[in-house]
Design goal:
Porin, 48% strand, 16-stranded antiparallel barrel
Length: 433
């Protein structure tokens, strides 16, 4: 009897020790909201007749949740860099200033392009804050549960554009995004309402997109779909590839879609085929210059080439970043067919640019501005048309998180150059299921 009691007591003590050990191993100190890789909060474009892309913080940049209070930075420091590295797998869409006043359909091109080296500073952000956890809306959640990568999310946005040339455009977009491991799927539907002096036009496009990392150095993606307007349907599609060469990142792609940026381009069914390439090199974690080249063929027998060089330096602060840089843009069109977009024979712009990106638990945003000289020459320009001068642009975006899985964001963009100006407003809702 005594031996049975002794054996029972030993088993009880062993079970208690095992439970305490499991709790000690699994316990993780609570943290404040995850600090995102703020470079992911990049400006994204939308279909407009604008000279340059619009301002809005990428919704992927800030889908975070409160993890509680009382974080111990030292206790979390061992995991911060590893968690921050998760954000390097998702780069935001990069927008070039291809086609100044040329009204490119940036919403479609954003689905076909990625921003090179968008997350190169994630590990440094992890060093600055021991509480860093999830750095990407599609990455692991604050508890390190990689099943969070597979949570789908939906983005719905509306943009309103107007300029001094009389173009008015409203765009409504819906994007469903699914992630299965390292394979991303997307379903997009865009509707464009455009008006000019000759009346109004409407176009709708639906497309399916994919993106996957084949290995640590190579990734591919693309999409296909169709665009519809006034009884006609035209297929659209894209393909892109990215190669990571240690400090350098090379991306190349091709896309075919409708230039649905003004009523005139929709009315004239102007399609564009964009062959593009970008190269970025990480001199340091804070200095990553980018070179981007586009060659575009249009169905109205026109073509263009554009080159953009954008060296930027990033200063990191607690929960924010300050980017300062120089943007050089060259653009040239073969002809000016007068089919609804501005086609200068030669455009050269040199601008100083700065942006402040911030992210907190319940709100996030971006403020940016650029200024510098710009010269443009057009073959059939009218007498007295400005050929050059000083160009400025400014943008702001602000978002809130009223609930754990819900974001609301608004943005504003204004652009001015000699003889021309434009403004754009936008609203975006993001919900993670």
């Amino acid at each position: 009897m005594r031996n049975n009691l002794t054996a029972g007591a030993v088993r009880s003590i062993a079970v208690a020790v095992l439970i305490v050990a499991v709790i000690s191993i699994c316990h993780e100190p609570p943290c404040l909201a995850a600090e995102q890789n703020l470079e992911q909060a990049a400006i994204t474009g939308s279909p407009s007749a604008g000279k340059e892309t619009s301002t809005s913080v990428n919704a992927d940049s800030g889908s975070q949740a409160k993890d509680g209070e009382g974080c111990d930075p030292e206790a979390a420091s061992d995991n911060s860099k590893a968690d921050a590295a998760a954000s390097d797998n998702d780069s935001s869409d990069a927008n070039s200033a291809a086609n100044a006043r040329a009204n490119q359909d940036d919403a479609q091109s954003n689905a076909d392009k990625t921003a090179p080296q968008a997350a190169t500073d994630a590990s440094e952000q992890g060093d600055s804050n021991g509480c860093q956890k999830d750095t990407d809306a599609d990455g692991p959640d604050s508890d390190g549960d990689y099943a969070a990568e597979e949570r789908p999310y939906m983005e719905t946005r509306a943009d309103f554009y107007r300029d001094s040339q009389g173009y008015r455009t409203a765009t409504a977009s819906t994007n469903m995004h699914f992630t299965l491991g390292n394979f991303s799927l997307g379903l997009m539907r865009d509707t464009v309402f455009a008006r000019d002096s000759k009346g109004s036009e409407r176009s709708e496009d639906t497309s399916f997109s994919f993106f996957t990392e084949l290995n640590e150095q190579f990734a591919v993606g693309g999409g296909f779909g169709s665009v519809h307007s006034q009884g006609w349907n035209i297929p659209i599609g894209s393909f892109k590839a990215a190669i990571d060469l240690d400090r350098a990142t090379l991306e190349a792609g091709i896309s075919h879609d409708l230039l649905a940026t003004t009523a005139a381009t929709i009315r004239n069914r102007v399609m564009q085929t964009d062959a593009n390439m970008s190269l970025s090199y990480e001199f340091t974690k804070n200095f990553v210059p980018t070179l981007e080249i586009h060659h575009i063929d249009y169905t109205d027998h026109n073509s263009s080439i554009s080159v953009e060089l954008a060296p930027e330096y990033t200063f990191h602060f607690d929960g924010s970043q300050l980017q300062v840089g120089y943007h050089f843009n060259y653009q040239s069109f073969a002809t000016n067919p007068n089919t609804g977009y501005w086609a200068p024979q030669r455009l050269i712009a040199n601008k100083l640019a700065t942006a402040w990106i911030f992210d907190r638990v319940d709100y996030f945003g971006r403020l940016e501005a650029s200024l510098g000289p710009e010269s443009a020459h057009q073959i059939d320009s009218k007498e007295g048309t400005p050929q050059g001068g000083f160009s400025t642009s400014a943008g702001a975006a602000f978002g809130i998180r009223p609930a754990k899985d819900f974001e609301l964001q608004c943005n504003f963009m204004t652009d001015r150059s000699p003889g021309w100006n434009s403004t754009q407003l936008g609203l975006q809702l993001t919900y993670t299921f």
